[in-house]
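Researcher: Structure for this, please.
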Amino acid sequence: MPTPLCPYFTKCGGCTFQHIDYSLQVEQKRKALVQALNDVEIKVFSGKEYAYRNRMDFVFHSQGLGLRERGKWYSIVDIQKCVISDAKINQLLQEVQLYFPNPDSFDVRKHTGTFRYAVIRVTSIGDSSVSFVLNEDSSRLGEAVEKIKQFATKTTAKNIMIAAVPAHTDVSISEDSSVIKGSEYLQEKLLGKKFYFPIQGFFQNNSPMASKMQEYVHSTLQQYSTSSVHLLDLYGGVGTFGIINADLFAGITIIDLGLSIDAAKKNLEENKIVNGTALNLDAAQLKKISLPKLLFVITDPPRTGMDAKTIDQLNVLQPEVIIYISCHVAQLAKELTKLKKYGIKSAALFDLFPQTNHSEAVVELVRKVSPAAEKTNSAIKSAGKKY
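Model: Predicted structure, token format:
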């Protein structure tokens, strides 16, 4: 068994697999996906074992920043370096530690104090941010804001944001936020396309593996004749899947909510996608929009999976192909049983989360049709293979 690289491994509540050989970690994840999909053959993709994370939510404590102790949500382990994080994240961690050596940190049991989180993010093209999450009920809020403004002039982070949250909540994002330096967006590139995403919004935490996953999905879709087909990018976030695959389809529709869909609209313009639309819509309300009959779907829901109403509407729409991307194997298996008109054509595992028990799955689902119906549905065919 390997010796964990992290000196905090037995205490920190973060990654828990460092004592397991990495090849065995990946094999365990593969077996879990095989079992969930009833013995379907799985392609496996992996990358760097360490120094891969592009986002960390560090917790303020009286001596600086850390992560929650394993099994003790109220206790913080002081962290000087995180071995699964990108080197730039660790540099920014040190900058914050040095500038805020004895912060007025938030006490999660007493609900007092000011500084709660420092959310540090970086991208593969050199962008970076620190988002300070503060207790909006603190009497020292103004003092903290001034200190952060001073830090913004010293740090190498390109973007600095402040977000205020109520004392009796435990979140690291807020609508009550302001940009102190730079922009509210970070910039990343995937497969040659440029994407803006909100500092407080979702983006994959492992950029190199996210690129591999995008490349795999693109090559999967290239097997089909889709020039007359519409693509629905469901739970589409900032539009990465839809935009990267827009050239394969007659049109694309990206669906998500809030800050993400605002970024998706910006990304459509940035990448000069003329056949795309981004809609601010809850996926549960999918039935409210009209979509072309010839339809493919990419769905990338959160860990909780798709809403039951969304699944019902997919069964009504009957897209020819569904690419289901999931970070929760058990939820994926549960929802596939509700898509009874579809069979699994291929499946792949992407290890975006080395040293943890998490992974990402991509499942290609093809609508089942009778031989007679297949003859009349020649617009959509798999290259060299019929279903």
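Researcher: Any notable elements?
Model: The radius of gyration is 22 Å. The first helix runs from residue 22 to 36.
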